[in-house]
C-alpha cells in the first residue's frame, strides 16, 4: 500500500483528505520561478489579449489551400443540403461510404461552417476567420486553469472553489501556448477550426473531470455525473476532430497520478511480482477502477458508434501523401516514422521553418543507417528516455507527476497522427500538434523553474523567456500574414520545402488563375520534374499548353497522366479536347466516354462531347450530350447556350425558344442566355420581347459589342432606324472589327441617306 501510493501512513486516507493535503505535501513550483504574479482574472485578460494580437491580422484573409475543398466546394454548407447528411458525410462533403473518402468524420465542425455561411449570406471569409481567432483566444484563457491543475495540483477550498496553487507557472505556460507559431495553421487557416473546436471540448472535458472531485453536500468524494459529462464532452471533441477521443485516456492518467498519487514504477514492480498487497491497495475504495471503467466504456461506445457510421473501409491515401507508410521494408517504415516524430518535436522547440504542406518529396525517405538524419532520431529518443526515466524513477513525487503529465499530454494526443494504428494522409502536419503542444508547455515551464532554482541571476533568465515570447508573437504575426493569401502562403513554402512538388504545383496554379501562364508553366514543369508521376501537375500543364496551341506536347503530357492514373477523369476529358483540336475525332470521342466511365456525373465532359458532335454535324447526339450536362448541372450556362444556338442555326426556332425560356427560369440572371433567346425571338418577329431581353443583357454586361450589334440588327428589321444607328455606333466603338456590324451599319447609313433625299425632294 505504502509503495503504490507513496503515502507515509499504513492506512490509505480518504479522497477528501488527499485533496486537503495535496498542496502542503508537495513543493510549490512557483517558489523558485523567476516570473511575475498576476491575479487569475488579470492573468486571463493578458493571455486573451496577447493571443489575439498574435493572429489578429489574419481576420481579413482569403479562403486558402484546403479551405476551397472544405468550405467553398462543400455542398454540406448550403441550405439545400439536409442537415442529416452531415452525419453521413466526411469533412470534405463526400459520402463516408465512398471509396475516395478520407474518413475524416467531423460533422460538428462542418456544422459551424454551415452556420458561418448562413449568417454571412455567402462565402465571405471574414466571419470564418473571426470565429477561429475567438476560439484560439478562448482556448488560451482556459489553458490558465488547465495548467494551474497540471502544474500545481487539484485542491478545493472549504467552499468548494478550486485553488490555483501555481499562478505564476500556469500564466507562463498559458502564454507559451497562446503565442506558439506552430498554431498559426489552425488559427489563420479556416479548416484549422476542426483542431480548435476539438481542443476547446478536449479542455472542457478535462476541467469537467476535475470537477468530479469537488466534495458535494452529501459528502461524496467524487461525482459520477461530472465523470459522465467529461465523457460526453470527449465525444463532442471527437466529432470535431478525431484526436478528441484521447482526452479520456488523459483523464484516466490524471486520475491515477494526481487524484490517487500512484507511483507507476512501484505499481509495475508489484504487478510483475504479483504482490498480494495490491488486494489492499484501496483502488476500489477510492473509486479509481470504477471511474476508469466508465471512461473505457464511454470511449468504446463512442468508437463503436463512429465505426458503424463510417464503415470498415480504410481511408484512401496515395504514396505521395505519406511515402514512408508505403515502404516495403519494416525498417524503413519504422525509422522514417521516428524521424517524422523528431521533426514534430523540432517544430515545437524551434517553430521557425513552417510550411503548409510537408508531403511530395519535402522530406526524402531515410533508407539506410548511414543517413546523417539518424542523429535526429537518436536525439529524440535520448531526450524521451531521459524524461521517462525521471518520470518513473525520481524520488520526488512532484517531479514524477509533472513530467508524467507533460509526457502524457505531449504523446497521447499525438497517437492518432503517429501511423502506429492506421495510415495517415500526411508526413508532417503542424495542425496535429496543437494539442500536443500542451505537453511541451508543461515541460518547458518545469524546466524553466528548475533553471530558475539554480540560477543566481534570475532576472536575466526571466528576460530571456520574455524575449522568446516576444519573438514568438512576432513570428505568429508574420506567419499569419502569409496565411492571408494563397500567393504569399505558397511562396513562403519554397524556401522551406524546395523539393516539395506540391508547393511548386500550388504556386503554378495560383499564377495560372491570375492569368500569368508563362510563369505558371515554369512551376508546373518543376513540379513534374520533382515528381514524374504528379498527374495533377501534368493535367494543368497540358491545359495551359492546349490554350497556347502547343497541342502535341499537351497530348504527350495528358496521355502520360492517364497512363499513370487510368481513372483520372479530368485528364481523359482534357485529352479529348486536345485530340478534338487535332481533328482526331474518333480518339477524342473515346477519351470523352472513358472520362464519363470513371466519373459518371461529369457535366463538363458531356458539354465537350456535345461540341465534338456539333463539329461532326451529329446534331441529335450533340443536343443529347448538352441535355445530359444540364440535367447533371442545371446552371451549366454554356450547355444551355449551345443548345439554343444549335436549334436556332438549324431553323428550329420554336424549340430553341422553349429551351431558352427553360434555361432562363433556372438561371434568370445569365446575360448570355438573355442574348441567345433575344436573337431567337427577334427571328420569330417577337420584337418587343426580344428588345426587352437585349436591353436587360446590355444592362448586365454593357461592354459586349455583340449585344449592341444584334440589338441594332433587331431595330433595323423592326424599322427603328435611329435606335439601330445608335447601337451600331456603340458596338463599333467597343469593337471596331466586330464581324458584320460595319457592313450592316453602312447599309443603314445608305438607307437613312436615301430617306433624307426622299424627304427633301
From TrEMBL:
Keywords: Endoplasmic reticulum, Membrane, Repeat, TPR repeat, Transferase, Transmembrane, Transmembrane helix. The keyword Endoplasmic reticulum applies. One of its GO terms (cellular component) is endoplasmic reticulum. The chain crosses the membrane at residues 35-56, 133-153, 190-210, 222-239, 245-268, 288-307, 374-393, 405-426, 432-451, 460-478. Its EC number is 2.4.1.109. GO terms for biological process: endoplasmic reticulum unfolded protein response. GO terms for molecular function: dolichyl-phosphate-mannose-protein mannosyltransferase activity. Belongs to the TMTC family. This is dolichyl-phosphate-mannose--protein mannosyltransferase. It comes from Zosterops borbonicus.
